[in-house]
């Protein structure tokens, strides 16, 4: 397996996934621009199939498998968005799907995944390592493991979001994306830097889930305890083996936002832009609203990575 991706890989992925992934809209808000002093173009992956960008990487991976591999089915671990994406893509090609999900994943994500025809296996993320659980389940049931982020096929699929954004708004000076395991930002940074070499790429993490921020500053992959952040899609404990070197090479910096700043961003996007964005997807907006990005950022593309949030969680913000 190669550990790098190219613009050609991402373009090939765009063709491969075109039968299933939506080309999501790009939105602007004068109110948001006035609040931040930045001209912001939101890539709305909250309107994507399955409610998040994850369908891009999952379908690129699954559509790249051989017929023999597909007959064995697929297995994946996820708090929700990757789970839904794997279930949708597997159903598209007639493959069975088993999804390993934490017991504290949002109920809407668990039920949506089950609704797409997947079999669900729950685990306690505070007591069990997710990689160990998915390895055990795959060993018991068979099937190809579809990684949530740490694979070139996954990162290449996620990078198609940046190609679409830059085709629509080519003269951005910055691209801003959430960071969990790094699949989205590594794919998008690869595409963005190839298409527009002068662009700056910034990632955003919750303060409570700062594994990539710490890893960049230490110069190596740092593992943290399971984080208790509201941004459930960013609860990774260590950046990927494939994704981290790409982040080191192509991402200008990672900034951190607090739990309250994330909640405030979700509420701002809902009440002022009238769009529902989950906490994981709102971290880029939070970084801009709190002035945490360099003042040189004047025209930015922000990936709103998903919109899957429990009603109860939303009401509590």
Which key features would you list for this structure?
317 residues; 10 strands; 15% strand; single chain; Rossmann fold; 6-stranded mixed beta sheet; 4-stranded parallel beta sheet; alpha/beta; 44% helix
What do these coordinates show?
This protein is an alpha/beta fold and 317 residues long. The chain has two domains: 211 residues, Rossmann fold (3-Layer(aba) Sandwich), CATH 3.40.50.1100; 91 residues, Rossmann fold (3-Layer(aba) Sandwich). It has 14 helices and ten strands. Helix 1 packs across helix 8. The longest helix is centred in the middle third of the chain and has 17 residues.
Question: Quick recap of the structure?
Answer:
The chain is 44% helix and 15% strand. The protein has helices at 7-17, 30-36, 54-62, 67-72, 81-93, 107-115, 130-141, 152-168, 183-195, 211-218, 243-250, 259-272, 283-289, 311-315; strands spanning 26-27, 39-44, 74-77, 97-102, 119-123, 144-145, 174-178, 200-206, 253-257, 299-304.
Strand residue percentage: 15-25%
CATH class of the largest domain: Alpha Beta
| Quaternary status | single chain
SS elements, strand count: 10
Overall mean pLDDT stands at 94
Q: How many structural units, i.e. domains?
A: 2
Secondary-structure element order, N to C: HEHEHHEHEHEHEHEHEHHEHHEH
- Percent range of helical residues: 40-55%
Arrangement of strands in the largest sheet: 1-2-10-7-8-9
CATH-defined architecture of the largest domain? 3-Layer(aba) Sandwich
Low-confidence stretches: none
Instruction: Kindly identify the CATH topology of the largest domain.
Output: Rossmann fold
Largest sheet: 6 strands, mixed
């Amino acid at each position: 397996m190669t550990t790098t991706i190219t613009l050609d890989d991402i373009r090939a992925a765009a063709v491969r996934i075109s039968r299933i992934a939506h080309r999501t809209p790009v939105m602007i808000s004068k109110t948001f621009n006035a609040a931040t002093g930045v001209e912001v173009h939101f890539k709305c992956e909250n309107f994507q199939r399955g409610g998040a960008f994850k369908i891009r990487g999952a379908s690129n991976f699954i559509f790249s498998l051989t017929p023999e591999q597909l007959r064995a089915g697929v297995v994946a671990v996820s708090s929700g968005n990757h789970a839904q994406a794997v279930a949708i893509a597997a159903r598209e090609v007639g493959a069975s799907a088993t999804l390993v999900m934490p017991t504290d994943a949002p109920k809407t994500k668990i039920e949506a995944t089950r609704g797409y025809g997947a079999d669900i296996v729950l685990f306690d993320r505070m007591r069990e390592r997710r990689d160990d659980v998915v390895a055990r389940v795959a060993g018991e049931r068979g099937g190809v493991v579809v990684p949530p982020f740490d694979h070139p096929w996954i990162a290449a699929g996620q990078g198609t979001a940046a190609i679409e954004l830059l085709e629509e708004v080519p003269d951005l000076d910055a691209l801003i994306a959430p960071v969990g395991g790094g699949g989205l930002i590594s794919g998008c940074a690869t595409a963005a830097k190839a298409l527009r070499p002068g662009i700056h790429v910034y990632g955003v993490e919750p303060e409570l889930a700062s594994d990539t921020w710490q890893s960049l500053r230490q110069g190596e992959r740092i593992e943290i305890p399971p984080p208790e952040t509201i941004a459930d899609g960013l609860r990774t404990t260590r950046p990927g083996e494939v994704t981290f070197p790409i982040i080191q090479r192509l991402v200008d910096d990672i900034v951190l936002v607090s739990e309250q700043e994330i909640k405030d961003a979700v509420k701002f996007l809902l009440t002022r832009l009238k769009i529902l964005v989950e906490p994981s997807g709102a971290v880029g907006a939070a970084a801009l609203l709190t002035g945490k990005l360099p003042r040189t950022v004047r025209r930015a593309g922000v990936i709103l990575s998903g919109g899957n949030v429990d009603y109860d969680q939303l009401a509590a913000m």
